[in-house]
Fold this protein.
Amino acid sequence: MKRKIPVGILGATGMVGQNYLILLRDHPLFEVAYLAASERSAGRSYAEAVEGRWRMGEPVPEGAAGLPVYPVGEIEGALKSCRLLFSAFSTGKEETRLIERTYAAAGLPVVSNNSAHRLTDNVPILMPEVNPDHLDIIPEQRKREGWSRGCLVTKPNCGVQSYVLPLHALRAAGFVVKEVITTNLQALSGAGYPGQSALDVIDNIVPLPSEEEKAFCEPQKIFGALTGDRIEPEDSLRISSSCLRVPVVHGHTSCVWFAVEGRQPSLEELETALSRFRGVPQELRLPSAPDPVIRFTREDLRPQPRLDRDGGRGMAVSLGRLQRSPVLGYRFTALSHNTVRGAAGGAILTAELLEAKGYL
Amino acid sequence: MKRKIPVGILGATGMVGQNYLILLRDHPLFEVAYLAASERSAGRSYAEAVEGRWRMGEPVPEGAAGLPVYPVGEIEGALKSCRLLFSAFSTGKEETRLIERTYAAAGLPVVSNNSAHRLTDNVPILMPEVNPDHLDIIPEQRKREGWSRGCLVTKPNCGVQSYVLPLHALRAAGFVVKEVITTNLQALSGAGYPGQSALDVIDNIVPLPSEEEKAFCEPQKIFGALTGDRIEPEDSLRISSSCLRVPVVHGHTSCVWFAVEGRQPSLEELETALSRFRGVPQELRLPSAPDPVIRFTREDLRPQPRLDRDGGRGMAVSLGRLQRSPVLGYRFTALSHNTVRGAAGGAILTAELLEAKGYL
Amino acid sequence: MKRKIPVGILGATGMVGQNYLILLRDHPLFEVAYLAASERSAGRSYAEAVEGRWRMGEPVPEGAAGLPVYPVGEIEGALKSCRLLFSAFSTGKEETRLIERTYAAAGLPVVSNNSAHRLTDNVPILMPEVNPDHLDIIPEQRKREGWSRGCLVTKPNCGVQSYVLPLHALRAAGFVVKEVITTNLQALSGAGYPGQSALDVIDNIVPLPSEEEKAFCEPQKIFGALTGDRIEPEDSLRISSSCLRVPVVHGHTSCVWFAVEGRQPSLEELETALSRFRGVPQELRLPSAPDPVIRFTREDLRPQPRLDRDGGRGMAVSLGRLQRSPVLGYRFTALSHNTVRGAAGGAILTAELLEAKGYL
Amino acid sequence: MKRKIPVGILGATGMVGQNYLILLRDHPLFEVAYLAASERSAGRSYAEAVEGRWRMGEPVPEGAAGLPVYPVGEIEGALKSCRLLFSAFSTGKEETRLIERTYAAAGLPVVSNNSAHRLTDNVPILMPEVNPDHLDIIPEQRKREGWSRGCLVTKPNCGVQSYVLPLHALRAAGFVVKEVITTNLQALSGAGYPGQSALDVIDNIVPLPSEEEKAFCEPQKIFGALTGDRIEPEDSLRISSSCLRVPVVHGHTSCVWFAVEGRQPSLEELETALSRFRGVPQELRLPSAPDPVIRFTREDLRPQPRLDRDGGRGMAVSLGRLQRSPVLGYRFTALSHNTVRGAAGGAILTAELLEAKGYL
């Protein structure tokens, strides 16, 4: 039996960190060996550090309960005990960038949930099914930054997964999609804990203007081109998104309209493109890769967050209501699990791809 | 003091009927004098008929508690006691049409909340601020149908109010708007009681495909032209709408994108057109007409259903987040109270307009 | 026409403060003349200070929008402009006590929503229908504290209103009630804004242990005896309460069991005692006094927060499901509006009583 | 490898039926071999029958998708294909009794989720950890009814699990508990689909009077004595329960007060009794038996439905907030999963016990 790769988690006591521990329990490739959190938690065992704050529906995994919690920024223990870091430690943008670069410079590949480096020109925003080739920037990144074994990869905002993956499937099938409108109905766990006030979402929904910029910037970069040591965003892709917080625990829903340039394909053609799409993670049979990655349905009343978010163990996108539209041409509704595919799970799949490509 | 006009309510024991009673208590023009409901309720006093089913936040109005409930379809009492009927009695489409026509033929103007007659070519879907001139079809309607004093007017589906009114304000200011995309987040009371299952909307939202056709057909007719004895829908108006049920008690929210043909106006111009719009009900100072009818806000986190639905005593549309969009050109978010403006209140305003125009 | 009494509000920009402004608009006795809040808001007009934070369903009352906001602790302006202060400024307990005493010492009667002084032995926790006689401590309070015209009165925690009032009605009718068990299902607005995390109450309810001590301490003092210059709690009253936060916007619900000593009365006797109860505010016809103050119902499915909280304009207690119980003997369910009767409205009624008794 | 026992499900297309299929997928003892539902579904494959109605968060198990659906009441296929029936077919009480007796008479052991037979004197309400000895009535049942191999066992209402199990643990440890008060906050799935109206539980909670009788009758029988061919309820146990529907998807919460006769034990003694309790299913290591069956916590803010309902794969009771109470003496809060332990899961555990005791 192959030995597992030891991994670490920055921000291990927060909600995303807790989710990593659940998803990495019994993972075939990785095992959790290093945990770091804020000074407040450091120096205690993990079980002590999360007492009264553990918010998963199952207990702290046994292997993690006794691990010591290091302060974020501590390097020596990390280097000794792990070979890859998941970064879910959220603090000021500048400080986050510095922390992540410090670990990368010290020799550790870092897969980050934070937005801090997403728009850094030589750091990819990776969706393993969409832009796996963006990992090819790593040698350039190491050269420019002077890093030997470390590197830095981010995953996108949880809000864009539901529509970027289907749009990619359509583009991969040859349909030129440049204009997109979406309404993103975002779940509560997207804001962490405590996050949104209960008064905002009982008998109410609230606008989320701060999410709306990410909704087009990140896809432009994900669909961008790797040129030399930087990723050029695809500016010709135009996305307008209205984001609202809705009283759903997990599962972001997107109502999507899009135009196809040139010949207007039939709905059957689009359905085929969506339901048959397979990406590199599916080809490589990566442990966390769902197959199919787009669960297509013709049922009228689907997708629904509570019934569909766990599809593909939370890693698939559920897509339905594909129709023609008198404006732009087509529309569908899609949803994905924001804390699995959209956070810890998406980052784990990225780490699996890094391993498969030999970057660990 | 002028004597009030006696009015009747078909379907008086249902939720819309109950809402009529609350809104008509102390109305300056109308007083409730006739109540009709299904056979099950008929023959009892109103207070008895709604015992255990009254769902308003305040008690049964005193004047109504002792009124007898007639069976729907009973004509004689209606003719004797009232001069206008609000129809909120919901049954099969064919039967509803027959019932409403029977009362109209007997000489009573009928303002209907039902969808049954909305697409009948000589029956207007009236929004008093938008197409008050469609009432001019009444003489033609009476002629074709052979009715003397009765007539038939409908109000639109509760889901279209939030965007039809602002679109009209823009068109009235000279902006040619022909392409519209909306996501309609509909409140629970739109489905009546019991309506939606709680399991559909706790930690969940559900598609409402049945609402999506109304979302473009009704606006096309509202914006249509009166030609001879029929209303021609404006087919060149293209609206695509995605409708979902959200766990909000009252207040439908629409995220709206739209294109303006020709010169692209500034946001200030659009804001002016929206915030200064006044319609015939405002000019005539009709008792239920809100002024302003569009409550424009620049606040980032508004509109919100719980905070804004009661604006203008539930009769105004709250509109915010007006922005440019890289697709179609512009967008905003609007909301209106679905059981006030969108049901009983909208019908009462229509009745006030009928009275002002001399049709009672 | 009598001139209105000018009043002030400490903590005017918070949710309770906003509620005061709504409830005092068009009040027949009082008019708002002085507003104070934290340093952050001070120096601006009220409209500016609450921009983006106003959370009432109707706009800022016109009279208040232009008032200047003073910093809490400012005395001179308060003395000049008002004759009574409502204190809803929440900060550390010690500091709150000091602030309230400072205003009282300067000559202003203070009615406080804060818990800081509730257990101070010469400060009453007043429920106008229950212990109006506790106001008789004011002369003693002034003597001991050396205050001339100022005084200090508190209102109880919002969680105890639903059951203290009915228990008092029973005791007033001669039934000796000493053992009480309640489950208090508390609404979100009881925690202010932002208050409870949405993740705590979507598809969830959470224990509120911090409320459980107040649930018996405050009633013991409210039912206590005025002896000399202090109020002696009624220790023989035993109340055990389990408190939980539920996803209701406004309206605390209590499931109550109680024992009656001696002869066991019939349900009819208890119903009579509850439904006929009238207190001093009802006798004096104080402007905010609901009549009846206990709205008794025999309907099986009532009370319900959304349908009943606004009873008596939010000032009444709705009570139903009165039954015999095989344990303790009897039970009922009661609810009251926690931000009206339970906060600003209850304090306003107390102020009306102070005025009627000549303490202003 | 031992061959699995083929089992059948009456009412297989409803929500409880769907839950059985999920819980029995990969069950070590049982495999689903027979499905029956109403006439509407009969004659189709299971996958066809539930199309558009499947409400589980994961797909129809492969083994079940192709099974034919028989009409409830069909005997021959049942006898041929299975050796035990789970009955979740809900119709009129009389008819349900007849259906269940018909299958039992034909030779099949029936474990029922229905209330129809719960108060039949020779049919046990079984909670495997509490009254496993009540299965000893089966020989008497067979004798009186003239059944050879069939028998009839029910499981209790989902609302009583949370407190009956802890009360039993206390009684098993020698504490005499005869007086109990509970508030039961019941989840939505307890009412099936569509069940409760969304308007009842958004910004609201509603009384559930119909559940309150079950709350004491069923525990009296569960704690009753087997005498000859009938079970005598324990009348001296007095339970008063207030039941309300709350907007929680799964997980019933009970706030419980109880008196202990005689010496008043310390909280530590009670904690020990609760946390160490093991019943026959734990001793026999039945496949669905959770261990521990009572998950005791000292955390202040627990139990919470969303975080604790899945404890012990939905089969454990989570219990916390154990405290002294000035009334009755003690109190705690407990919760259990109403569709797992409280419905399909509890019945499966009962079937496992039947098998272990040789009744299949």
Residues 340-356 of chain C form the longest helix (17 residues). Chain C has two domains: 5-157+343-356, 161-337. Residues 5-157+343-356 of chain C form a domain with the Rossmann fold fold (CATH 3.40.50.720). The mean pLDDT of chain C is 96.
